[in-house]
Amino acid sequence: xxxxxxxxxxxxxxxxxxxxxxxxxxxxxxxxxxxxxxxxxxxxxxxxxxxxxxxxxxxxxxxxxxxxxxxxxxxxxxxxxxxxxxxxxxxxxxxxxxxxxxxxxxxxxxxxxxxxxxxxxxxxxxxxxxxxxxxxxxxxxxxxxxxxxxxxxxxxxxxxxxxxxxxxxxxxxxxxxxxxxxxxxxxxxxxxxxxxxxxxxxxxxxxxxxxxxxxxxxxxxxxxxxxxxxxxxxxxxxxxxxxxxxxxxxxxxxxxxxxxxxxxxxxxxxxxxxxxxxxxxxxxxxxxxxxxxxxxxxxxxxxxxxxxxxxxxxxxxxxxxxxxxxxxxxxxx
Amino acid sequence: xxxxxxxxxxxxxxxxxxxxxxxxxxxxxxxxxxxxxxxxxxxxxxxxxxxxxxxxxxxxxxxxxxxxxxxxxxxxxxxxxxxxxxxxxxxxxxxxxxxxxxxxxxxxxxxxxxxxxxxxxxxxxxxxxxxxxxxxxxxxxxxxxxxxxxxxxxxxxxxxxxxxxxxxxxxxxxxxxxxxxxxxxxxxxxxxxxxxxxxxxxxxxxxxxxxxxxxxxxxxxxxxxxxxxxxxxxxxxxxxxxxxxxxxxxxxxxxxxxxxxxxxxxxxxxxxxxxxxxxxxxxxxxxxxxxxxxxxxxxxxxxxxxxxxxxxxxxxxxxxxxxxxxxxxxxxx
Lengths: 333, 333
Prior knowledge:
homodimer; 333 residues; alpha/beta; 15 helices; 42% helix; 13% strand; disordered N terminus
């Protein structure tokens, strides 16, 4: 468990921790992909309170989605994170927990919907982008940075990106104002050695530019936690996790596992467990996130989980062989 | 994904596989710890058929438990694996699948209950032992070897063994007739770097004596599959897994994940999925295996999962905070 780069030898690494690691809770934001961001205020407040008590560094409350692209009445408040809605649930956030929102490239009216920092409880704007959207994404980063926010960039679906193009993207991102570059395993398709390789690559560009690297892992192959550890071992210092792994499809790295692993005395897992028990687990059956064979199959095929999400919401959900046959035939087509 | 030691470079390792890897299915044996080995013949036969069709190398059908220690009427047939019972379910095993049984040190009347190989459908006898039972275990290995069986030894609970004693144990085991030495993460407490370290240590003793190293991982920290991969990367060639991860407590490395990962064309995951769907998943609610927070907590504390198994079978099972408080207080006591 190589958490400190300072100490050497097995025993030293075992009992220590790495102080500059930051943890971001993405429960409501990523979980919102399973319920159109329709969380009760009570749930959002419970996650917020738990994050504060647990010593978590950031809470990502939702998206800043464009109301032109996303119908305001089809999605819950946490798809848009209007200032009034944020303050209704979180107050003026008097805590040291930092509030994050995600802004999707080409799906955010950022000039208009992201207020100057002085008028907002938001601290961090994370721009999510596919590789072909990098110019827009970097303009969004600049906009948020100029308005006074901390910024991050989440480069998505990189398991389907050619290495040469990834290098160009990282080179470009490294020249921007962004503070953290996050490795996102969108399809839950990466093995540990690929995580090693990619985190090293990201660090190579990021460190030279004084930026941090983050990891955001999905659990399609039951590797979300272990790949997050792998990221830590390689030097990633910004870690995404969610309560009970709540998130799209197979879900994310579970916060309760991550906090215990980190050994930093500032973190406390008990408030996470309490919120998990009272607010998150009761939603599991309706939302249907977490490892299952259909998610495993899209993970192995390095594909978006949408076909598995659809299957798991259908009456045939337990017929995993039928899903296997379907997806295998598609593969051959 | 370093699966071949022969190839070098990332691309080469990606598309290849390691031919000398063997996979053992432990579904009925390890799963038997959740239902006193009371599986229907139909289920045992279904797992057997699936193993044969899937190209799996070994199936561990159960234990050779002493009828003096285990009441014959309290446990199912698969706790004892009498020859007549094996043949009732599996016939004379005309397939190339090899049949394995586990024999616990000090809980097996091995002189009497393990027949000469010529009279049995069993191919492999795996001796499970705590470190203080090594002399008995090695006598059991010799007995099985002399009777004509392949042999393995599973050294249990090693996350609680002092390193000096582990070294002595491995030194002794290396002098025996045993063919495979299996690293067992009994409490699901090991992280990847510990797996690396321990597999390297096991290999150091085993390779010099012409033996193979195996891994048997539990899923308390959602690391059973990733730790098995870690074992493969380090050079372990004998891998335990179970259908749907069925096994004690948080369960084992899921066979469906492992077979897909291995990329050896002799393996076929579809029969595993079919059996999983028809025979294994329908038992999940009654047997209650698989990751849960109580198992996570015993894993983090490097403890036997028995308190969590008891909790998960109680009416309070969903009160994970109460379990957390209980186990934390015990820890301080």
